[in-house]
Amino acid sequence: MMFFGEFEYKLDEKGRLPLPPRFRRYLKDGVVLIPGPEKCITVYPLAEWKKVADTLTTGSLAPSKMRTLNRALFATAFHMVIDSAGRISLPAPLRDFAGIYDEAIVAGVNKNMELWSPDEWAVEKASSQVQAWQIIESLEQK
Amino acid sequence: MMFFGEFEYKLDEKGRLPLPPRFRRYLKDGVVLIPGPEKCITVYPLAEWKKVADTLTTGSLAPSKMRTLNRALFATAFHMVIDSAGRISLPAPLRDFAGIYDEAIVAGVNKNMELWSPDEWAVEKASSQVQAWQIIESLEQK
DNA sequence: GGAAGACGTGGGAAAAAGTGGTAGAAAATG
DNA sequence: CATTTTCTACCACTTTTTCCCACGTCTTCC
């Protein structure tokens, strides 16, 4: 499954966020939410997250590094299930981390999704588009 | 398939745009719309876009660069299917980006198509024609 | 030149989606 | 242990979107 597209939704007063209808059939087992490398929430389908976690934790790392990695991967992760209306409730710690309050952008990014505050997303989107076409042009020249 | 030619259509009040009849048989799987490098919407047949995306995402880039690229390639892309009248509906974010409202130019550009507002297209067309002959002459000198 | 088919354009109906609310269950606290 | 509060799952309503149909015009072919 490839996730793509950009969708904007309101959160209700309980912190619930709809996911795009076209994604829902691939998220029956729920999703895993973790803080992203940027100021966003990274969303994996459960199966995909298991693959990522496996890949990372089978690497040969020093025990202390491995403990750190495990804490970051698992302790900050939330397994959320989609309700009958296609929504997940965003845990407060993650909302604060990403600065998401009234509304959020759901962005499909190939194997996973990202949740952004509209303001942060506007900035990130603009800069990524400029960079992307530069990369594309450099590849087309080959 | 090589797309060429220039076509002008009206959008209806629901944001739907017809695609040229001679293109339709090559677009059965739908099209992928992304913001163009200029102020236009770039349209790929699904298969063609997958090739581009594969090429780009299999390259060896630093993880942060790869995330940026993925955001530009996937998050701003929309997969649209042609309806029984040969139309696609243009997502609002892309319409705003390209300044397309009442009518649009569909331009065939080799492997893909581009959607322009008539005003922007007139400017781009004039300048690209002048530049094209200069480019061709510079190539012939080699 | 006429007729038939295709195309552009608009509208309408049905289905889906966004959003808010309510009730039940679980948990926490006194 | 009981009561209150919070969270979750389910339900319902309104808006939006999507799919399908129909009409008028243009092109093409006979």
Can you walk me through this structure?
Two copies of one chain form a homodimer. With 142 residues, chain A is of the alpha+beta class. Chain A has a single domain, classed as Chemotaxis protein chec, CATH 3.40.1550. Chain A has five helices and eight strands. A six-stranded antiparallel beta sheet of chain A has the order 1-7-8-4-3-5. In chain A, strands 2-6 form a two-stranded antiparallel ribbon. In chain A, a hairpin with a 1-residue loop joins strand 7 and strand 8. Chain A is globular. The first copy, chain A, starts with a strand and ends with a helix. The mean pLDDT of chain A is 91. Chains A and B meet through strand 1, strand 7 and helix 5 of A and helix 2 and helix 3 of B. The structure holds a DNA duplex (30 and 30 nucleotides).
